[in-house]
Amino acid sequence: MNHPPFSTWLYEDCQLTPSQAEELKLHLQTCPDCRQQRDAWLNVRHMLRTAKPVEPRPEFARRWQVSLAERRAQKQRRQVRVTILSLSGAVLVLLLGLIAYFLATSSLADLFASVIGTSTQVAVGFMQVSDFINSLLHFLPPALSTAIWFILTSWICLLSFVWVFSIWRITHKGDTSHEEIH
């Protein structure tokens, strides 16, 4: 059956204009295919409107919530993997780019000497900072030294607690497995 626009008018839920309704009525009187299709559509619409809603199986909500939690956990793991792989790839590309740049602009011996020189400077810098802190602690009175260590230790403990609590909150965000589902 190919009777435009009648074939589409049969299935439209919008109100037809009076002239369109008259055209459709005349067409249905002369076309048995369209009339049969209209009757079938009216039967289907009636069945859809009068059908009773299907009740979900028992425990459906609980199973669905459990599967939702599992899907969320999988999604989070996938996002973590993608993030780690993306960052690793970016670092690898950056390192390869730096190596290529340094190899193109200088000789291997110059690079080796530069790496050794920089490593030595970093080690010397750490030793100088360590010597400065040691001399500072030797010159300060013992009570002040103890107070500094106490304050420093307190701050480290506080920051460690905040860090552990933050990690715990991030990993348990949205996790309802420890709550009873009603």
From TrEMBL:
Family matches, as InterPro entries? Anti_sigma_zinc_sf, Znf_put
In this chain the Putative zinc-finger domain maps to 9-35
Q: Does the keyword Nucleus apply?
A: no
Q: Does the keyword Chaperone apply?
A: no
GO molecular-function terms, A-Z: zinc ion binding
One Pfam family for this entry, by name? zf-HC2
This protein's source sits in the domain of life called: Bacteria
> What keywords are annotated for this sequence in UniProt?
Membrane, Metal-binding, Transmembrane, Transmembrane helix, Zinc, Zinc-finger
Q: Where are the transmembrane segments?
A: 82-104, 147-168
Q: What is this protein called?
A: Putative zinc-finger
Output the lineage of the source organism.
Answer: Bacteria, Bacillati, Chloroflexota, Anaerolineae, Anaerolineales
